[in-house]
């Protein structure tokens, strides 16, 4: 076989210079993938199997597409990170809090924060429980989490000042009836309400720094805390929102009772099986994805998202419809998601791989069905004693999720 006729996987630039470079590289890789996969499908149609070289080529280019998408995502995330100052001038009280907080972090002097507490009659600042991060740093952490934790970016997010959220939910609406102009009106049933009550769970991280680092005025301490804490929080949240068991952590949507969609009832999650153990059907593998999307009620389907990990996405990228069109489509522009049959696709690496009895793909209106509750404020407690010569920063936030519509 003439090796010169083999098309190699697209070259991956380790660190693309710009988002435009990364997007162009990704689109080039995807076009090469479609060409190679078309060849593979033609071979299957003509010979009932594909050449091993062709299969290896498709897999190699598919991996290149994933790497290019990963590089693009990293650049988009980096661009999305806001400036600590929020892009505007700080008010006098914000500047005072920022300066007092930095003094506390660097030298452990909390007199400035205590003075602010007395000045504002605030009960949110406590030397026993730590001090609230200034608004600028708090916003930085929250923004990065919305990018790094994909379920948070899809769900509805609410902030509460207390540790418990109580939410009334209507299980059934008003009963109505038809009557003639002069007919008697009988009393109709009142709405059925249920109250959901959830206590926020505590999420913590404890980065350490040397005193020398804290003494270096060239180091942006607030930015350092945000960069240390945000990834740790995001990883823990991402896992909990998908598969958390609800014990001292949020309960993930996969942890709810799963039932066949034909037997769905309130409080459960409906599912559709592929019909093949640990795989999709050999003929029309994308049909189950269409069935899953249209199993949703119309009101939820129009806002639906597919959620899956990168490995599963690589598998469905090969699927075509009856007219030869790929079901998976590349993003139309930088910052836009890939789509599957017109629905956005969100990558969540905490989703399981395709396997026997595994729920590898989720589709639904997460904004209507999943509520993330944050208690206002990220708290930092400085500990210079427990791990000398390091200074520990015990950083906590409280969060809870509620699955409100299954």
Short overview:
With 406 residues, the chain is of the alpha+beta class.
Kindly describe this structure.
There is one protein chain. By secondary structure, the chain is of the alpha+beta class. It has 3 domains: about 15-80; about 90-170 and about 185-250 and about 370-400, 2-Layer Sandwich (Major capsid protein gp5 fold); about 255-370, hypothetical protein PF0899 fold. Helices cover about 40% and strands about 20% of the residues. It contains 12 helices and 16 strands. The protein has helices at about 20-45, 50-80, 90-105, 110-120, 135-150, 150-155, 210-215, 220-245, 285-295, 300, 310-315, 365-370; strands at about 130, 155-160, 165-170, 190-200, 200-205, 210, 260, 270, 305-310, 330, 340, 345, 360-365, 370-375, 380-385, 390-405. Strands 1, 2, 5, 6, 14, 15 and 16 form a 7-stranded mixed β-sheet that branches. It has a 5-stranded mixed β-sheet with strand order 10-11-12-9-13. A hairpin with a 2-residue loop joins strand 11 (about 340) and strand 12 (about 345). The longest helix has 29 residues, at about 20-45.
Provide key terms for this protein.
single chain, 406 residues, Major capsid protein gp5 fold, hypothetical protein PF0899 fold, 3 domains
Determine the number of helices (DSSP H or I, runs of at least 4 residues).
12
CATH architecture heading of the largest domain? 2-Layer Sandwich
Taken from the alpha-carbon principal axes, the silhouette is: flat
**β-sheet strand percentage:** 15-25%
Poorly predicted regions are 1-15, 82-87, 121-125
Helix content class: 25-40%
Radius of gyration: 26 Å
* Major β-sheet profile: 7 strands, mixed
**Number of folding domains?**
3
What's the overall average pLDDT, rounded? 80
In angstroms, what separates the terminal alpha carbons? 55 Å
- The strand count comes to 16
> What is the CATH domain class of the largest domain?
Alpha Beta
Order of helices and strands: HHHHEHHEEEEEHHEEHHEHEEEEHEEE
CATH topology descriptor of the largest domain: Major capsid protein gp5 fold
């Amino acid at each position: 076989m003439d090796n010169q006729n083999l098309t190699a996987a697209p070259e991956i630039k380790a660190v693309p210079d710009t988002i435009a470079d990364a997007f162009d590289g990704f689109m080039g890789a995807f076009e090469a993938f479609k060409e190679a996969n078309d060849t593979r499908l033609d071979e299957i149609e003509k010979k009932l199997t594909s050449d091993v070289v062709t299969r290896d080529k498709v897999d190699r280019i598919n991996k290149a597409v994933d790497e290019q998408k990963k590089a693009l995502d990293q650049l988009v995330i980096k661009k999305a990170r806001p400036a600590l100052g929020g892009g505007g001038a700080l008010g006098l009280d914000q500047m005072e809090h920022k300066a007092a907080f930095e003094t506390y972090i660097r030298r452990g002097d909390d007199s400035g924060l205590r003075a602010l507490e007395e000045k504002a009659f605030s009960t949110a600042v406590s030397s026993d429980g730590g001090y609230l991060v200034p608004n600028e740093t708090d916003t930085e952490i929250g923004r990065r989490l919305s990018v790094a934790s994909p379920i948070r970016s899809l769900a509805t997010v609410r902030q509460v000042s207390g540790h418990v959220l109580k939410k009334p939910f209507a299980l059934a609406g008003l009963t109505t009836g038809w009557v003639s102009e002069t007919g008697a009106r009988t009393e109709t049933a009142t709405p059925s309400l249920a109250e959901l009550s959830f206590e926020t769970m505590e999420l913590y991280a404890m980065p350490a720094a040397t005193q020398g680092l804290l003494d270096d005025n060239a180091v942006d301490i607030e930015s350092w805390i945000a960069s240390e804490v945000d990834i740790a929080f995001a990883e823990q949240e991402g896992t909990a929102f998908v598969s958390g068991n609800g014990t001292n952590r949020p309960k993930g949507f996969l942890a709810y009772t799963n039932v066949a969609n034909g037997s769905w009832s309130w409080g459960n999650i409906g599912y559709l099986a592929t019909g093949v153990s640990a795989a999709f059907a050999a003929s029309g593998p994308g049909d189950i994805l269409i069935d899953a999307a249209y199993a949703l009620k119309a009101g939820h389907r129009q806002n639906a998202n597919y959620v899956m990990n990168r490995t599963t996405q690589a598998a469905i990228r090969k699927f075509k419809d009856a007219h030869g069109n790929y079901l998976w489509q590349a993003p139309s522009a930088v910052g836009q998601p890939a789509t599957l049959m017109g629905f956005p696709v969100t990558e969540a690496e905490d989703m399981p791989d395709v396997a026997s009895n595994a729920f590898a793909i989720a589709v639904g209106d997460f904004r209507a069905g999943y509520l993330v509750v944050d208690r206002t404020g990220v708290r930092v407690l400085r500990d210079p004693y427990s791990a000398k010569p390091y200074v520990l920063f015990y950083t906590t936030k409280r969060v809870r999720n509620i699955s409100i519509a299954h």
